[in-house]
C-alpha cells in the first residue's frame, strides 16, 4: 500500500466514524439502523477498492459523505433540539415522551420529493438485502459476499 493509499484509507475510516456519530446524534433508531447498514456497505466497498480509485474519485467520495453529515445536522438540529427540550420537560413533569411514530411523521414532512424517492429506493434495497440474507440462512448457504 502506497502512502497516498494509506492516507486515503485512514480518511475513509475517519469519515465512516463521523457518519456513524452523526447517525447516533441525529437519527431515530430505526432510521439509524438502516443508515448504518448502508454506510457500512458503502465504506467497506470503497475501502476494499481504494487502490483502484483515482484521486478525484477518492476526494469525491469523502466530500459527498461529509456533505451528507452536514445536511443531516442542518436538517435535524432544530428537531433534535425540540425533542431534547420536550424530553426534559416531560421528564420534569413525569409526562410520556413522544412516540417513534410521531417523530417519524415529523421527519417525513421535512424531506423534499427527491429525498423521499431516495428513501423509498433505500428501503426497497434494504428489504431485498435482508430477504437475500434470510434466504441464504434458511438454505444454510454462506453469507452474502459483497464483492
From TrEMBL:
Tell me where in or outside the cell this protein is found.
Mitochondrion matrix
| One Pfam family matching this protein | Complex1_LYR_2
In residue numbers, the region (Disordered) covers 85-104
Q: Which GO terms describe its biological process?
A: mitochondrial respiratory chain complex II assembly; succinate metabolic process
InterPro entries noted in UniProt: SDHAF3/Sdh7
Example of a GO cellular component annotation carried by this entry? mitochondrial matrix
Q: Please give the start and end residues of each transmembrane region.
A: none
Ranges of compositional bias, category Polar residues: 88-102
| Major subcellular site | mitochondrion
Report the function annotation for this chain: Plays an essential role in the assembly of succinate dehydrogenase (SDH), an enzyme complex (also referred to as respiratory complex II) that is a component of both the tricarboxylic acid (TCA) cycle and the mitochondrial electron transport chain, and which couples the oxidation of succinate to fumarate with the reduction of ubiquinone (coenzyme Q) to ubiquinol. Promotes maturation of the iron-sulfur protein subunit of the SDH catalytic dimer, protecting it from the deleterious effects of oxidants. May act together with SDHAF1.
Its subunit composition reads:
Interacts with the iron-sulfur protein subunit within the SDH catalytic dimer.
The family assignment reads: Belongs to the complex I LYR family. SDHAF3 subfamily.
* PANTHER family (alphabetical): DC11 ACN9 HOMOLOG, SUCCINATE DEHYDROGENASE ASSEMBLY FACTOR 3, MITOCHONDRIAL
Task: Please report the name of this protein according to its UniProt entry.
Answer: Succinate dehydrogenase assembly factor 3
Source taxonomy: Eukaryota, Viridiplantae, Chlorophyta, Pseudoscourfieldiophyceae, Pseudoscourfieldiales
Amino acid at each position: 500500500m502506497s502512502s497516498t493509499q494509506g492516507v486515503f484509507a485512514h480518511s475513509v475510516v475517519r469519515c465512516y466514524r463521523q457518519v456513524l456519530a452523526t447517525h447516533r446524534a441525529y437519527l431515530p433508531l430505526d432510521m439509524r439502523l438502516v443508515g448504518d447498514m448502508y454506510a457500512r456497505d458503502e465504506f467497506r466497498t470503497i475501502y476494499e477498492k481504494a487502490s483502484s480509485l483515482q484521486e478525484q474519485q477518492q476526494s469525491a467520495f469523502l466530500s459527498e459523505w461529509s456533505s451528507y453529515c452536514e445536511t443531516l445536522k442542518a436538517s435535524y438540529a432544530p428537531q433534535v433540539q425540540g425533542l431534547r427540550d420536550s424530553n426534559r420537560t416531560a421528564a420534569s413533569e413525569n409526562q410520556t415522551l413522544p412516540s417513534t411514530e410521531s417523530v417519524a411523521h415529523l421527519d417525513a414532512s421535512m424531506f423534499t420529493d427527491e429525498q423521499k424517492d431516495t428513501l423509498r429506493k433505500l428501503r426497497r434495497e434494504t428489504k431485498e438485502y435482508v430477504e437475500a440474507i434470510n434466504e441464504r440462512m434458511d438454505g444454510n448457504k454462506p453469507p452474502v459476499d459483497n464483492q
